[in-house]
């Protein structure tokens, strides 16, 4: 039963929460102050109501301890993130900590309100928030900060430290999807021709990427057991990533839907067979120095290729051949563009790209989809030749 004690113009409410392992009574307290103008009867009624609410909250475990956000954040990393998140995601969240802890890390979890979080989110949109160029942070980066804070509160709610997540009421800046820089069909044709003169390993890497839209980590995670030469299909089952603390490591795919299988033209599979023969010869040549990983794309001794190697090679390739360099991911956008312009439905495009949600594909490639839909209308109009026909009114 909660106890109520008047202290000046306010009331102290105490609730016993049992005893700890040393036999010491655990007590939670709160202070309630009446609004000006309340009558004695109103005050009595409201203070008793506050006492009941506070006691119920304590019984459920809320406010069971004065846990500060930084303490709960570190607990979340240890007990949840390290176990459930991909290493790259955990590392990205970890990089957000200094700014978040500086702003709200010293505050008790149960004292942080939506206004606290909103003020922090708004500060990220101000000039100078980006410490590299002095600009505001991008809406996407701001959402990463919001997501981290929200994850900690969700964990705190499950652990009985807070009763609600203040992030749910925070207003976030809208993400403006910009048109992606992609290679044209002529660019791709030229790149494919030029690749024929290059080292077989990189010829295979970028030809396969052009025909598949696979992510870089997915490409580097490919193993020979993922290649079905009999049916001309390749499956994505894992990724190869890099973190400074642990080096190159194998991880799961970005999402469950990222695990997918695509069928390839015969000439691509023949190129892969040629590459497999070359790698088999290297295995014999290097003998004990060769590290067996079953990976397609490796260093000289068979170890998984560094994640930055394809990026650096492509940049030099583009400079040598006077081709605009849009980065490795541009091939993925080009792949999507080709599918959209060929009239492939958005659900199939999303599946081929390995997006977890069709809406993700629609948002990223909305401009391409609008252009494709416009072409459909033009094609129908041309086929029916409406422009040259006069529509006669129906007779009475």
Automatic annotation (TrEMBL):
<dbReference type="Pfam" id="PF00589">
    <property type="entry name" value="Phage_integrase"/>
</dbReference>
<feature type="domain" description="Tyr recombinase">
    <location>
        <begin position="178"/>
        <end position="378"/>
    </location>
</feature>
<keyword id="KW-0233">DNA recombination</keyword>
<dbReference type="GO" id="GO:0015074">
    <property type="term" value="P:DNA integration"/>
</dbReference>
<dbReference type="InterPro" id="IPR050090">
    <property type="entry name" value="Tyrosine_recombinase_XerCD"/>
</dbReference>
<dbReference type="InterPro" id="IPR002104">
    <property type="entry name" value="Integrase_catalytic"/>
</dbReference>
<dbReference type="InterPro" id="IPR013762">
    <property type="entry name" value="Integrase-like_cat_sf"/>
</dbReference>
<dbReference type="InterPro" id="IPR010998">
    <property type="entry name" value="Integrase_recombinase_N"/>
</dbReference>
<comment type="similarity">
    <text>Belongs to the 'phage' integrase family.</text>
</comment>
<dbReference type="GO" id="GO:0003677">
    <property type="term" value="F:DNA binding"/>
</dbReference>
<feature type="domain" description="Core-binding (CB)">
    <location>
        <begin position="71"/>
        <end position="157"/>
    </location>
</feature>
<dbReference type="Pfam" id="PF14659">
    <property type="entry name" value="Phage_int_SAM_3"/>
</dbReference>
<dbReference type="InterPro" id="IPR044068">
    <property type="entry name" value="CB"/>
</dbReference>
<comment type="function">
    <text>Site-specific tyrosine recombinase, which acts by catalyzing the cutting and rejoining of the recombining DNA molecules.</text>
</comment>
<dbReference type="InterPro" id="IPR004107">
    <property type="entry name" value="Integrase_SAM-like_N"/>
</dbReference>
<protein>
    <recommendedName>
        <fullName>Tyr recombinase domain-containing protein</fullName>
    </recommendedName>
</protein>
<keyword id="KW-0238">DNA-binding</keyword>
<dbReference type="GO" id="GO:0006310">
    <property type="term" value="P:DNA recombination"/>
</dbReference>
<keyword id="KW-0229">DNA integration</keyword>
<dbReference type="InterPro" id="IPR011010">
    <property type="entry name" value="DNA_brk_join_enz"/>
</dbReference>
């Amino acid at each position: 039963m909660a106890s109520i004690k008047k202290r000046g113009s306010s009331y102290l409410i105490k609730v016993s929460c049992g005893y700890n392992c040393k036999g010491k009574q655990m007590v939670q307290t709160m202070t309630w102050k009446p609004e000006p103008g309340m009558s004695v009867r109103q005050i009595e009624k409201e203070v008793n109501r506050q006492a009941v609410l506070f006691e119920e909250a304590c019984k459920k475990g809320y406010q069971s301890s004065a846990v500060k956000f930084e303490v709960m954040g570190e607990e979340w990393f240890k007990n949840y993130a390290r176990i459930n998140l991909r290493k790259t995601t955990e590392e990205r969240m970890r990089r957000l900590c200094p700014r978040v802890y500086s702003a709200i890390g010293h505050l008790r979890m149960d004292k942080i309100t939506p206004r606290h979080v909103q003020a922090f989110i708004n500060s990220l949109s101000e000039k100078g928030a980006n410490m590299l160029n002095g600009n505001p942070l991008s809406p996407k980066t701001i959402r990463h900060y919001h997501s981290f804070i929200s994850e900690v509160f969700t964990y705190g709610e499950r652990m009985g430290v807070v009763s609600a997540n203040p992030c749910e009421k925070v207003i976030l800046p809208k993400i403006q999807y910009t048109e992606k820089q992609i290679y044209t069909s002529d660019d791709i044709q030229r790149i494919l021709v030029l690749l024929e003169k290059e080292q077989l390993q990189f010829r295979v890497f970028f030809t396969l990427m052009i025909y598949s839209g696979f992510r870089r980590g997915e490409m580097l995670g490919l193993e020979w057991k993922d290649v079905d030469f009999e049916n001309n299909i390749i499956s994505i089952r894992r990724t190869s990533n890099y973190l400074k603390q642990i080096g190159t490591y194998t991880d799961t795919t970005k999402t469950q839907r990222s695990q997918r299988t695509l069928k390839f033209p015969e000439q691509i599979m023949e190129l892969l067979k040629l590459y497999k023969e070359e790698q088999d010869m290297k295995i014999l040549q290097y003998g004990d120095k060769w590290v067996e990983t079953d990976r397609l794309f490796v260093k000289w001794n068979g170890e998984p290729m560094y994640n930055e190697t394809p990026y650096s090679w492509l940049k030099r390739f583009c400079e040598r051949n006077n081709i605009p360099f849009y980065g490795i991911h541009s091939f993925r956008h080009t792949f999507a563009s080709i599918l959209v312009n060929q009239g492939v439905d958005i659900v199939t495009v999303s599946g081929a790209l390995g997006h977890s949600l069709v809406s993700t594909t629609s948002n990223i490639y909305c401009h391409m989809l609008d252009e494709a839909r416009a072409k459909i209308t033009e094609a129908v109009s041309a086929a029916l030749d409406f422009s040259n026909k006069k529509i006669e009114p129906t007779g009475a």
